[in-house]
Fold this protein.
Amino acid sequence: MGKIVSSLTNGKILPQFRAHLDPDLREESLPRHKGWKPLLGQVGSSQGHLRKQAIGPGDIFLFFGLFREVIVNNSKLIFCQDSLPIHLIWGWLQVDRIVLINVCNQEELKWALYHPHFHRIQIR
């Protein structure tokens, strides 16, 4: 995927740049522990912003992005010049609970420990 993104951005995004699933909505996308649930992970200032907005159980997140048609031209993927960019909603999550990962019960959340945000926080 990195090569495709790099090609479409004319090298502005390098192929070795990494990404992770956030929000993570599809169970079959990675090997999972029993009890896995879709999740969205926020830490630092992003988590603080959600707290200031009083986000809590029952709230809904809509995920959208700017998309554009891609075609193959001379064996290379390029954006189709005849297509216009379009904003699309591609997913949603409803908040069940908010977990502060630096003070959570790691044993209770084994199904979520694969998520990269857990790797950056010291869990007690």
Summary: The two ends are 35 Å apart (CA to CA). The chain has a mean pLDDT of 87.
